[in-house]
Amino acid sequence: MATKVIRVDVSPEGIRLDRADHAVGLKRGRDKVRWAVLGPQRIEIEFENDTPFDARILGHEAATGRDNQPTAECARGRYKYTIYEEGNRGNKLDPHIIIDPPSSGGFPGGG
What we know:
Immunoglobulin-like, 9 strands, 1 helix, about 45% strand, globular, about 110 residues, 3-stranded mixed β-sheet
């Protein structure tokens, strides 16, 4: 199994990720993901509707302190989520997790 690390840079000017981390693909039963904050700030992850993980909201410890593996029941597709700076919900970024991405690199209709 591979663990993908999404590096999060939190500053007063905003939250940033490497370009490649704005849409991370994970294979069910094979890949895991963990967020790593560059600096002392704390984050919270909140999925918009459905989540590929056990919880729709991942606090700082859950997001950064363990490898998160998609559940066997999660559907294939794109999951939009928001990264918030803990204590400052106005400082946020909206990337995606893609479960079982097709080899062509996209989903019909963007989903």
